[in-house]
Amino acid sequence: MHPAASHSLISNFWSAAVAHPGFEQPLDTWREMIFANQMPAQCSTMCSLKGNVHWAGAMQNRRRLAFALIQAVLKGCTMIGGIWPSERTSPLNTGLTLRDWCTRQNRLFDECYFLPVSNCSWAPGKSVQYLIELNDLSAALERVANLTGLRSELLVMGTAMSWLMRPQSELREAVEHYGKVLGLAQSGARHRRVAMHIRRGDKYSLHPKHLGNHSWRIHPASFVTWGRRVSAIVGAERVLYMSDDEELNLTHRGGSLFQLAPAPRRCVPSGVDKLNSGRFKNGMKMKAQDAFRQLIAHPEIWASRKRTAERLQWVLPQLDECGSEMWADDGIYFYAGVLLMAQCATFIGLQISNVGMAVAELMATQRHPPVVYDVLNDVYRGPYNSDERVWINGVHHPNSLRPIAFDRLANGDGTASHGCWACDGDRDKDLLRKLPPELEREGRLRPGEALEGFGV
Of 351, 386, 346, which Cα lies nearest the Cα of 366? Predict the structure, then answer.
């Protein structure tokens, strides 16, 4: 089921997945389980995720669906689309041309960007089981490991994410176009690129009062240094970066080594609107959400401002970079950027970000383990939704540390400790007070006071 490693541009990580030495059979088994569950001959048992849409949290929504997909496979029910029936339009579907095209084809919400999650669909008279929205996948990972022999969190999640991010033709064509503009279409070029995601926005754990003397680690100058150093290590020719900060310009700070991905921000409605193309404007989440809704409700805003931009020659000289009018959409822009970053040689970012975790997961389908650098010395947090805490051996303020009890740890016998997403209650408080003596002896944990704020 696995092709040889690809040296060319990738748009579909599911079909391009690589057989990793030592994981071939377990990975094949897991892929077969997903395919058989989601493409059944008869749609007899169906299930769906019952939850709220996280507006503008696009990759958080994708990862929540991956959690639900794993749950569905283990339950033996086919997960169907229409996950959030109250929402017909994706929060990032700001492009009128694409939105009208998808509406005419009855491709609602994220099916405007991705292929349907299964070949089943709901119809009147059919019953659907509702899945519980999970924040903690630890127990499910043990079940997958016991059924398939696949014990890599990255490969379990990466395989699920690659299924959920199989692109529709419009997104595939945008990835191919942007990839060509960025130079990734040349044979072997993607192995000479470093990907970087700079999270600013609303993460409370990145606030100076939490980072204290380590605030410099997430400063743009720090990312420039990381990019230049890692590029020298791996022999990269470019650093492709994405950010939720519209004013961040690493090309201005670090020179031509740095290139915004997947294209200039003026190529999408929120960019011409001078709105942050990711999530926030002036650090205010609701303001950005309201602006996205306004762009969706009033496409004439984009049309008018685009005409103004063209008159001022903001757009005309770069039309080849922007490509088709069909791609003038914030969702296309965002997802294409993620898919392009995930095929680079290495990734620099933050694992408290859902984007950072998703890139690591998709990268793992191409090379395992993926080469990921976290500027806060954090580690992959895949079995859980982000709680913005950095693991205990990372660099962070004590009140934002993720205690050892929160993480899955290998036991040496093929199993792992359960961990927990956000421990609370008396039982968990007692658990957090107890540091594993063997880890404490080896000096791999910080002093006991590092757990203050979580163990009391």
Answer: 346
Residue 282: per-residue pLDDT: 40
d(CA 400, CA 354): 17
Cα angle value 75/78/83 (rounded, 5°): 105
Query: What does the pLDDT read at residue 57?
Result: 78
Question: Which amino acid is residue 225, in one-letter code?
Answer: T
**Rounded to whole angstroms, how far apart are CA atoms 64 and 157?**
11
Of the segments 60-64, 95-99, 201-205, 330-334, which one has the largest average pLDDT value? 330-334
Pairing of strands 128-131, 193-198: unpaired
Specify the length of the chain in residues.
Answer: 456
Distance CA 273, CA 120 (A): 39
3-state secondary structure of 373: strand
- Which pLDDT band, with edges at 50, 70 and 90, does 237 fall under? very high
Instruction: Please tell me the distance from the alpha carbon of residue 388 to that of residue 394, in angstroms, as a whole number.
Output: 12
User: What are the domain boundaries of the chain?
Assistant: 24-164, 188-374, 390-451
Contacts 24+ apart (CB under 8 A), 419-428: 419/136, 419/138, 419/383, 419/384, 420/136, 420/138, 421/135, 421/136, 421/138, 421/384, 421/385, 421/387, 422/135, 422/387, 423/454
Instruction: Write the Ramachandran bin of 407: left for phi over 0, alpha for psi from -120 to 50, otherwise beta.
Output: beta
Assigned fold of 188-374: Rossmann fold (3.40.50)
Contact by Cβ (8 Å): 65, 113: no
Please compute the mean of the pLDDT values over residues 37-42 and round it to a whole number: 96
In the predicted structure, residue 327 carries a pLDDT above the cut 70: yes
**List of residues 6+ apart from 91 with CB closer than 8 A:** 53, 55, 56, 58, 289, 292
pLDDT at 382: 79
- pLDDT of 203 higher than 60: yes
The winner for highest mean pLDDT among 163-172, 187-196, 294-303, 417-426 is 163-172
Nearest Cα to 422, choosing from 445, 400, 444, 395?
A: 400
Q: pLDDT tens digit string along 82-107?
A: 554 455 667 788 888 898 899 899 88
CB 373 within 8 A of CB 348: yes
CA angle 5, 6, 9 (to 5 degrees): 155
